[in-house]
Amino acid sequence: MIELDHAEKFRTDGFVFFPGLLPRDLLKRIQEELPKVLDEPGPQRFLEDDGTTVRAVYGLHRKEGVWQEVATDSVVSQTAKSLSNSDLYVLQWKVNPKSAEAGDQWEWHRDFTYWQAEDGLPAPRAFTAGIFLDDIDEDNGPLRIVPGSHTGPALHEELEAMDHQEITDREADDWSAAVSANLSFAISDGGATTLSGGREVFTACGPAGSVVFFDSNVVHGSLPNRSRRPRTLALISYNPVDNAPTDWPTPRPAYFVNLEPTPLP
Ligand code: SIN
Ligand code: MN
């Protein structure tokens, strides 16, 4: 069970970091299953601009075994429940391997911008557990988070003027705009600095098995991996059941988002 100050920190900073949270045997089982998931061709798998390196694999909420266990019945789901006052379900479950020397950047962005625009998520109440499947340090492209930025104003005014149908029509042929190194709703360095309120960027470094929980509206991103080591980050997003989208004119494919808001046990 997490301490109260973790929940408080999560609310105030928009993130909370748990070094080495995952038990060693669970971490090992995930690492053993990982190559199969990365090797499986299909629309759920996205490549880097080089056309060969795997950048992201979505749809793990549809897999059983250890993938289901870690998301719904593990120290990760327990901690997620402790950080929220609501019944939660798994909204999205993906892995970003950020390969050695080839894994590219993730520009500054807020996840809620995408979930609201593309999936019709009503409110920014979702959050994500970023699970380190490798040791992560400054050199292999750690996740970077702008503390407190989840409470700042929305930065994409153009979205306010578009309706959900327009946005999903625009992206329906190419969902990769939400996955590429040039994101559709990226935030500039200037925007990130403004939202930081003068606070320093938090760089999520630690041993494999560490987990960082971050708010759907907190600004985050990462630099390319220039090291000779991969930086595999598994990302489970949780959303309150009563915040599930209710209107799906043209939903993204089910490998992107879970269309069945089944509460965690
Ligand atoms: C994300 O925002 O989806 C993850 C960024 C990263 O893998 O560094
Ligand atoms: Mn993100």
Main attributes?
8 helices; binds manganese (II) ion; 265 residues; globular; Jelly Rolls; 11 strands; alpha+beta; binds succinic acid
Detailed description of the structure:
- The chain is α+β, with helices and mostly antiparallel strands and 265 residues long.
- The protein is 27% helix and 20% strand.
- It has eight helices and eleven strands.
- It has helices at residues 4-13, 24-39, 66-72, 75-83, 111-119, 157-161, 164-171, 189-196, and strands at residues 15-18, 45-47, 54-57, 88-96, 106-109, 127-132, 143-145, 202-204, 211-215, 220-222, 233-240.
- The strands form three sheets. A five-stranded antiparallel β-sheet has the order 1-9-6-11-4. A four-stranded antiparallel β-sheet has the order 5-10-7-8, with no helix packed on it.
- Helix 5 (111-119) packs across helix 7 (164-171).
- The mean pLDDT is 91.
- The structure holds succinic acid and manganese (II) ion.
